[in-house]
TrEMBL record:
The chain crosses the membrane at residues 124-144, 156-176, 209-231, 251-269, 281-299, 319-339, 359-383, 403-425, 437-455, 467-491, 512-533, 553-572. Belongs to the purine-cytosine permease (2.A.39) family. The keyword Transmembrane helix applies. This is Purine-uracil permease NCS1. It is found in: Membrane. One of its GO terms (cellular component) is membrane. It comes from the Eukaryota. Keywords: Membrane, Transmembrane, Transmembrane helix. It is a multi-pass membrane protein. GO terms for molecular function: transmembrane transporter activity. Coiled coil: none annotated. Pfam families: Transp_cyt_pur.
Amino acid sequence: MVSNCFSLGLHLHPHPHKHNHHSLSSLRSHTNAKLYQHVSFTASTHKGFYTSSGSTFDPLRRGRKDYGWGNHNLTSIRPRDIRPRFSATMTGSASDDFGYDESQFDPSLTNDDLKPTTPSQRTFSWLDMSSLWIGLVVGVPTYYLAGSLVDLGMAWWQGIATVIAANLILLVPLVLTAQPGTMYGISFPVLARSSFGIRGAHIPTLLRALVGCGWYGIETWIGGEAIFLLLPAHVKNSALSHTLPWLGTSPLEFSCFIVFWLAQLCIVWRGMDGIRKLEKYSAPVLITLTSCLLVWSYLKAGGFGHMLSLSSKLTSAQFWTLFFPSLTANISFWATLALNIPDFSRFAKSQTDQIIGQVGLPVFMGLFTFVGVAVTSSTSIIFGRVISNPIELLGQIGGLATTLLAIVGISLATITTNIAANVVAPANALVNLNPKFFTFGRGAFLTAVLGIVFQPWRLLKSSESFVYTWLIGYSALLGPIGGIVLVDYYLIKKMKLNIGDLYSLSPSGEYYFSKGYNVAAVVALVAGIIPVVPGFLHKIGALSEISNGFVVVYDNALFFSFIIAAFVYWIIMSRLRRKQTSFSSSSHQLL
């Protein structure tokens, strides 16, 4: 798919909103010579059509030959039946250059949070994008990743290599999905309209939102747990720390959870600019605190000799049996953000900024997982036992200064990860669901409430393997969506989107399909999910026995679901386009 992008002339212009400097008059002049290459005609109730400035323009007011219509007999066609669609190739990428008029957007499909970003709103530099990934990567769940693989028998370098390999693979769809966000200034819910349909886009966005709400609750509970574990001993041993059966946790732990929940909400309420500033200014703090922890463990343990001496406990066959599901789980770890990355890339200053900034993902993941493995292995020397939980480790170190730094560090790490990864997508999905009612702030608030409803303390206490069941399980939902969106944008649409029709409920709109739903996308989505279902049911104990083939499919759920859905969607849409082209040719001859 990458090679195909370059063969199509991937619009990775360093300044997308400066891509074309045509004035409206020169654009009209250019249109006179080339319009026949870039305009499709659909039935419309408008008497004329709108130019990029919003003024009405009658195509029959000027000579037919000016528009390259040749000798076709257009006597029977009235101005009210013709509406042009300007492609991005012709018009560039500034909002006005794309040939749409925001005043014509259907109010039920847009508000200030869903409109394409303007050049003045594109403030994310490559440094901001890199800072975003630092804030995302440095967190408690990431700390566990490579260490958990070492616990399962991998050598330390094998565990880190698996994490880096997974993120290098993920980098490809990450950059490809981010491209339309920067090119057109649109968020993921709006991009999904081009493949799933104006109304069908609710399916992928709400599935992504559901996963985000679950993770929001889990991350918030981890942040609350940090506060609880670092409280004075006499407080933790009080009557408030006793578990209430109906609640599933203690009042004290639940209170810590709510305190952290409220702290995050204050930041989220400030919108995307507040999130950008939080990520940018937290990045150096998190790097400094992580470095201090690494240096401390090195000095206390007398070097990393113990970690370097850890060899693999697995045979070659056992390693590969563990490697592929581990690779899938690690790709799934950030598959959520790879899907809705346009929510962030739409604010990037240029394609260069978003690409360079995203390269930080495998780099920072590799470095931070190294810290996790190194510090965890050193605890067996320092304390005589392995302490894999960083919160517990910081509590074990003790001291007022350490406690304060731990609260600040873990709170920042959790908040920066949670807000960017688990709030933005659900909030935008809810805005897309009902733009008249939901703003970004209201969507974020409902996301936070649903995070409590998920009762993450019950989820995390059920079993240690839950996270891996959770990661691989939801990858079967996100994989097909990613495959459909990428195939549609790069292979079907050839990176050309009609921005006006992305905000239109007109039955003649390009993305209205069948009553607002693209049946081909829904069929492809189901086709990608079904093969993974038996393995998932077996994993949670609902099925006692299944064939080995279903186990392999489930262990590699992200890959199988992505490929199957992408292939099915490409086949269906290609056949439909051929039929449509054949019908258009016949109609053209009749005209």
